[in-house]
């Protein structure tokens, strides 16, 4: 038998964790630190700030909407070639951007080209990671996602240094070389053949079956709701603090504190997700509810100590819900369909992410302060966690978590993909 | 003709000087004090200048200034009426010599008549000169007033004024009220010759000194060097915060000599400026010879002021070399990873079912499939052993 029945849960899996760590750093760290280039572009192209910020927005949008494509391709070809191609695309986009003479040029090269490169790297990597682990899945995901936070710390000063020494053209050239490391990370993704892989069929069949899968759809809805509220504090916290009378430097410092507690939360929740038996969805619901409550409490807190405590707690809980959110998916759809599943989820939940910040800004413009937007964000999170309750086996305290064997034994009888694969609750 | 000196007696015993405090703009109080006697009306322009030159902090204080009527001098009248169309500016320095504390070292908070003033002044020696910087853009009449408070005998204090090192003989008044000694110097600043440092001295040995530095506004260039590449074009900008110079000129530096940039050669240099308070020098077709410091001079009626911008021109090879180095490193990494994989695969017996893929997986390196099929078995043993 050429296929594993169980994910290895270690061994080369840890190299995949390392690869995922660097990839999340190189994709999201670069995206988050791109604000440093922002000022230079405004001066160099003499365009208003709103138009320049579209560069990052297009990049993020392409990355998220392109996730299903990345997933489908890696289902067909395996993650390694897809991620390596994605790395080359991302680096190529940055390289072309260094020759830019207009803003449109940057939209196309960084936004479109690098964005599609990123779409081909991130989702397949996380899905590959989920296939390598089962017992320690949450911990592995949590560790891998810390790359995002750490790289934001490291890349912003690095980019500023590059700008000071090479101006933006040279700096983009060197960021392109940096992004090329995605190819090296992709080389680390040794493909894994698991037992249920031949059964679930090609990408088209998988996507169709997923779209008919009740729990998957409910989960997607829940994540979209969560995503709508998730980013609001990151975007508006500093502005809210300034409204309350804080100076810019302590406000920015508080955001860094939130980032640190975010990191801690990711790792702690990852460990917890593996240590606690039962469906991981319960933990996700716990963290989501806590985050929602904290967000709703923000308008009430006026004193600095209260705000600091709330921000640290928010950082921790919001960081905690990320690895668990990724770990729920394999339990729902099985590791065979993980690539396509993750791609679809990312695409749909990005709608929530794109809507959340402008909605919050609009509420702020209408009401005059951030109370309404924080409360709405908290409500979205609580709604998302409410939907999570409807997931199967939520209230069963003795039901085992989905194991690949279940999928295999159910599916091995036929060679066509079954639409009702999953925990078999139907 | 000598100004009426006021009371001057024998040299007062040396009074240790403890505090020198900057007093805030005394514009309003001074106007109130002088409005009874001054031949000038306060013009609306003054208020404007007050807010414009906000480096002269405008805290108000309630030291009552009772000015005794000044005797007008013929010379002053003549000069002032000649330039009466110019705006008037008043500036004040206050100095106190209090015999209370002997402490000359460390920070002291200036307490004058029970009012706590904002700045702490560190004294290192007993005769610390007090300085005030005044920025002037257009010709104006300037009044400089020094107040000296001492508990000793005011009549015995000697008052002198100097511009730079030159002793000024006239155009100043001295008056004493209560325990404060006032002296006021008026000058019509119409050209660069009247700019500079004016100092008032109290005491026989001129030990207490207040200085007014009259300067033209400062120009801001750029502190960080501008990095550009060969063949690019760049815009150098100099800006003045609140002032409107008459004219701007640019100078490039050749060696240590400033060479004016005047005639545009092949449109290489274009001088422009969107507003009057800024100037832009656009240089096209940069080459490495264009590297260096560029100076912008702002010309005022009262003098010149300059700022500088540093330009660095790099060739494309500079970042390109770093880029190629990093790309080579990545290629090396990828090769190493794939070679390592082939090596570990060779260590195991290559299995015959290495050609079975799941889902038609096509890989760039076909032999890697062999690893997967023998690998899992290997790893399974590992995991069982865990």
What assembly state would you assign to the polypeptide chains in this entry? heterodimer
Strand fraction of chain A: under 5%
Number of helices of chain A: 18
Q: Helix/strand-derived class of chain A?
A: mainly alpha
Strand-residue proportion of chain B: 25-35%
Number of domains of chain A: 2
Which class do the helix and strand fractions of chain B yield?
alpha+beta
Largest interface: A-B, 43 and 39 residues
Can you identify the CATH class of the largest domain in chain A? Mainly Alpha
Annotation, overall tally of beta strands of chain B:
19
**Overall pLDDT metric of chain B:** 67
CA radius of gyration of chain A is 21 Å
Order of helices and strands of chain A: HHHHHHHHHHHHHHHHHH
Shape of chain A: globular
* Helix content, binned percent of chain A: over 70%
Give the biggest beta sheet of chain A. Answer: none
**Overall form of chain B:** elongated
Report Rg of chain B. 37 Å
What would you note in describing this structure?
Chain B: Residues 1-28 form the signal peptide. Chain B: Residues 346-386 are annotated as: Disordered. The complex is a heterodimer of chains A (426) and B (386). Chain A is mostly helical and 426 residues long. Chain A has helices at 12-33, 35-45, 49-65, 67-77, 79-97, 103-132, 137-179, 181-187, 197-200, 203-211, 214-230, 232-243, 248-275, 280-297, 304-333, 338-367, 371-388, 404-411. Chain A has two domains: 7-195, Growth Hormone, Chain: A (Up-down Bundle), CATH 1.20.1250.20; 202-397, Growth Hormone, Chain: A. Chain A contains 18 helices and no strands. In chain A, helix 4 (67-77) packs antiparallel against helix 16. The model of chain A is unreliable at 399-426 (pLDDT under 50). Chain B is α+β, with helices and mostly antiparallel strands and 386 residues long. In chain B, the strands form five sheets. Chain B has a five-stranded mixed beta sheet with strand order 4-11-10-6-7, with no helix packed on it. At the A-B interface, helix 4, helix 5, helix 7 and helix 8 of A face strand 12, helix 4 and helix 5 of B.
